[in-house]
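Annotated sample (chain length 158).
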Amino acid sequence: MKDAYFIALGLVGNREDALDLSQEAFIRAYNNLESFNSERSFFPWFYQILRNLCFSHLRRRNRRQARFATDLDSEQSTIEPEAHDGFAPELVAERNEAKDRLWKAIGQLEPKHREVIILRHFQDLSYEEISQVLLCNKGTVTSRLYYARKRLKEILES
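Output written by the structure step:
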């Protein structure tokens, strides 16, 4: 559940929507369990359900808010100080700013680039696992990651 929530959060950029979408994905997976091929891995099958829900949600949201710019800043979580920090407010603020900049930049990526960044760097999936989840070959994953990282660097540098 936690992984599904964080994947959805990375794709839609909103805590409440991510929670709703991840829960809906589990409900749909349960209701369609008979279509699951038990000879295959569960995660790629489940991921397609979650991914489709997230992208459908984004399309609906974009249509509803076509005249308004999406503001991901207000949707990002804050970093809690770690116990060994000794609570240095300037370090916490600096990390929060960096995290907010990163999430805002990730939110500006195309959906196909955003999802490979999230799967690789936030879910720690291998290239092979990502290719299974996205139903594409490993070369496509490599290419998407290259262009996603390149675009992310451009956004962060501007």
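Annotation: The domain at 88-158 is CATH 1.10.10.10 (Arc Repressor Mutant, subunit A).
Annotation: The first helix runs from residue 2 to 12.
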